[in-house]
Amino acid sequence: MRTKWLLLSIILLTSLHSFSQFQIEYISIENEMETTSIFVKGKDVPVPEENKDLKKITVRCANLLANHKVEFTVGGKTVELKTANKTELDFGINILDKEMVIKHFDATSTEIRTDLIKFRFILEKKEIDIPQGDKGNLSVEGSIDFYLAQYYSHLEITPFGYINPKAKGAEKKIVHVFFDYLGNSLLGTVPSGISNAQYMVHIIYPITLSEPNKVSYSIKQKTGSFSSALLFNNTNIRSNLGSLQGGEKFDKVIERKFLLATSTDDITFDIVAVTKDDKIEKTVLNTYDIKMSPTYHGSFDVGLVKTELSNPTYNLVQLPGSTDQVVKATDESPKGVVTVMASFYVSPIILLESLFDKDKIPFYKLTGRNFLDDHKIYERFYPTIGVGVSDKSFENIFYGINWELARGLSIFGGWHYGKVNTFEMPNFVAGVTPVTSEQFAFYQNNRWKTSTAFGVKLDIMIVRNLFSATSTP
After folding, report:
1. What is the rounded distance in angstroms from the CA atom of residue 256 to the CA atom of residue 147?
2. Which of 101, 173, 397, 431 has the fewest C-beta atoms lying within 10 Å of its C-beta?
3. Minimal CA–CA distance to 220: which of 293, 285, 123, 292?
4. What does the alpha-carbon distance between residue 318 and residue 421 come to, in Å, rounded to a whole number?
5. Cβ-based neighbour number of residue 358 at 10 Å
6. What's the pTM?
7. How many angstroms separate the Cα of 472 from the Cα of each of 461, 462, 463, 469?
8. Does domain 1-122 have CATH number 2.60.40?
9. Which long-range contacts (CB under 8 A, 24 or more apart) does 420-425 make?
10. 252 has which bridge partners?
11. Measured distance CA(277)–CA(274) in Å, rounded
């Protein structure tokens, strides 16, 4: 009997009043050992091929607030959910390949538009016939290679996995990793991860036409991270998988795909094979850990900046050889200022490049920076803002563009907007025009002025290490 699959639960994870992610969990009706969880928002959801007539789903909306409701609309059919408990939704029509729209309404029946989710359930399975020889004499390794070449030769290799350079919208954030029926990584080792991307795991395996569902596969995503990139949880894997290894003839190569949760932390997942002989046996083939490299949106640095903005000090002094008093201005020359600056990794160069060739620029480079696949040196121009390090920090504001020459070393060019002392007596010439005490007190003032500034910026950790080194006896 073919295994029938249902969507056991759709879980809307909530953050305060709104959805943050959308998780779909599959559990086999006949075999509860087969479980797969994926997260999705605005993406097509691949479901096993057995779901050719999918009319019912069971949903649970975690933390749904009192008097709030969620509407599920597909194919002109709308079903409401008003409870946080698990509930079966019957649409009465096959919902495959139809757009599912999920809307969240608050207690006043006002739609929370930021929570709008649209996606489709699609059949996931691909298969190819034997590329060489007679059926029943399939070379497993050769056919898997043929399968990859047939369907995935368009993918582009990056330091963090394979991507589709022609993908649009949310699909641009999907990174593909491939494994065979033994849990071995295909097309290279498991890459380092990149935060905020979404990883799709592909398992490619052979089947026989006589028993196409004898072995099935699933992915169990686990929380936490491991120090080892690869763990062998089952050393007797070859004996547990039985005839899959032992020279049985195969007819087709097929594929299962699993979309993992978007994460900024390390992703750990098990590849699980379930064999169905006299009894059902669940085998963990391998446990993989995708170590995430962070995507930064900016940095704090210490700036050593020369400013052309003059902030003189005015003093009323006696003019030598005269009874008159004059105003003496001091400290009018350019000066150096120590600043704390924030740079934002939104490069104007990359934004311009994206206007001419949007598909060329990875999603994480538009608003962030990942050192695994860093910006090129001519792209490292970043908007910067900072303040002076003094008791009048917020009276000295610096803004402009920062060009990073090397990690931790940048050149800054921009403006200094600061509060300065002024003496605004009409027809006044410093050191010449006689000024009374009353006039001196009246015409002194403060104004905000702008002038150019330039300098260098150093990573705050470099500055800390320099000072700690010089202070060590």
Report:
1. 13
2. 431
3. 285
4. 21
5. 11
6. 0.58
7. 16, 15, 14, 5
8. yes
9. 420/309, 420/310, 420/311, 420/312, 420/446, 420/447, 420/448, 420/449, 421/311, 421/312, 421/313, 421/314, 421/445, 421/446, 422/446, 422/447, 423/314, 423/327, 423/329, 425/327
10. 129, 207
11. 10
Q: At 346, list the tokens.
A: 């939104």
Three-class SS of residue 251? coil
Q: What single string gives the DSSP state of each residue in 18-60?
A: EEEEEEEEEEESS-TT-EEEEE-SSS-EEE-TT-SS--EEEEB
Cα–Cα distance measured from residue 22 to residue 107, given in angstroms and rounded to the nearest whole number: 21
Q: From its phi and psi, is residue 329 left (phi > 0), alpha (psi between -120 and 50) or beta?
A: beta
Q: To which H or E segment does residue 440 belong?
A: helix 437-443
Instruction: Name which of 97, 24, 105, 19 is nearest 57 in CA terms.
Output: 24
* Structure letter (DSSP) for residue 291: P
* 135 residue type, one letter: K
Work out the average pLDDT over 359-387.
85
Query: Do residues 307 and 458 touch, judged by C-beta distance below 8 A?
Result: no
CA dist 348 and 356 (Å) reads 13
Over residues 273-325, the pLDDT tens digits come to 888 766 778 888 888 888 888 778 888 888 889 998 888 888 888 888 788 88
Which residues are 88's β-sheet partners?
A: 58
- Tell which residue, 377, 297, 338, 367, has the closest CA to residue 460: 338
Regarding beta strands 45-47 and 117-123, do their DSSP bridges make them parallel or antiparallel, or are they unpaired?
parallel
Q: Residue 41 to residues 32, 38, 116, 189: CA-CA distances in angstroms?
A: 26, 10, 9, 28
Compute the Cα dihedral for 394, 396, 397, 402 and give only its sign.
negative
Please give the Cα distance from 330 to 311 (Å, whole number). 9
Alpha helix (H) residue ranges in 76-172 = 140-152
Per-domain boundaries in the chain: 1-122, 125-294, 298-471
Show the tokens assigned to 281: 């046996």
For residue 14 the two structure tokens come to: 């909530």
Distance, CA of 321 to CA of 183 (rounded, Å): 97
How many angstroms separate the first and last alpha carbons of the chain? Answer: 78
Cα Rg of the chain (Å, integer): 33
Q: 341 and 386 in contact (C-beta within 8 Å)?
A: yes
Residue type, 382: Y
**Contact assessment for residue 322 and residue 435, using Cβ atoms and an 8 Å cutoff:** no
* pLDDT 10s digits, 219-256: 887 754 433 222 222 233 333 334 333 345 566 778 88
- C-alpha–C-alpha distance, residues 163 and 18, integer Å: 30
Residue in 339, 350, 336, 457 with CA at minimum distance from that of residue 404 = 457
